[in-house]
Structure prediction request, 207 residues.
Amino acid sequence: MQQLIMDSAEMNLNLECAELGDLLDELNRFIPEGRIISKLYLDDREVMDQGHDVLRAQQLDPVQTVRIETSSIELELQLNVSDILSYFKEMRPILRQAGRELRYGSITDASRKLADCFEGMETMVQYIDQFVSVLPTIDAAFSDDELKHFSEREGALLSDLIIDFQNQDWLALADRIEFQLDPLLGRWQKILERVSTLLKGRLALRN
Prediction:
C-alpha cells in the first residue's frame, strides 16, 4: 500500500499493515467521533459489501491505494433502517401467503416464495446484528430490558425454518411462519419505525 486517503485527504501515517483488518483497527482512532466508515476502496474496487471476515483478511501488499469515506452514524443508520423496513413491508405479506399455501397443499408456489425470502432473510439478520451493535449509541430511549432481548432469536429461527423446509415438514413450517416468524418481524418493524422517526427528526434539525 502506497497511499491512504480518508474523506479526500491523504494520510501520512507510515503504518505497516499486512491485512486490511489490521489497517482498519489502526484507523479507528483517526475517525471523527460520531462517524463510521461508509465506503472502502482498494484501488478502484469497492469492498465494503464483503463479509466481515473476508474484508479483514484482504492482503494489502498488491494494493496501491486504500480510499476510505466516512459518514455520520445517524445518516448511515437511517439509510439501513429504511432498507430493512422496506424489506419487511414487502416480505411479510409474501410469507403469510406462503404459510397459507403450505396449509392448503400448494407446495410448489409456497416453496418458490420461501426460497426467495430465506435468501433475503440471511442479509436481514446481518443488518440487524450490525444495527443492534450501534443501537445504544443513538439514545433511542429503549429500556435495558428491550436492549437485552433484541436480536436474540433471528439467527436460530432462520435455521429452524430452513431445516423444516429441507425436511419438507410443511405444517411445522407453516406454524413457525405464522406463530414465530411473523410476530418477530412485526416486533422488529415497530422497533425500526420508532428508530426511523427519531433519526429523521434529528437529521432534519441538523439540516
Summary: Helices lie at 20-27, 52-56, 73-103, 107-134, 144-149, 154-166, 170-206. The chain has two domains: 3-72, 75-206. Residues 75-206 form one domain. The chain is about 60% helix and 10% strand.
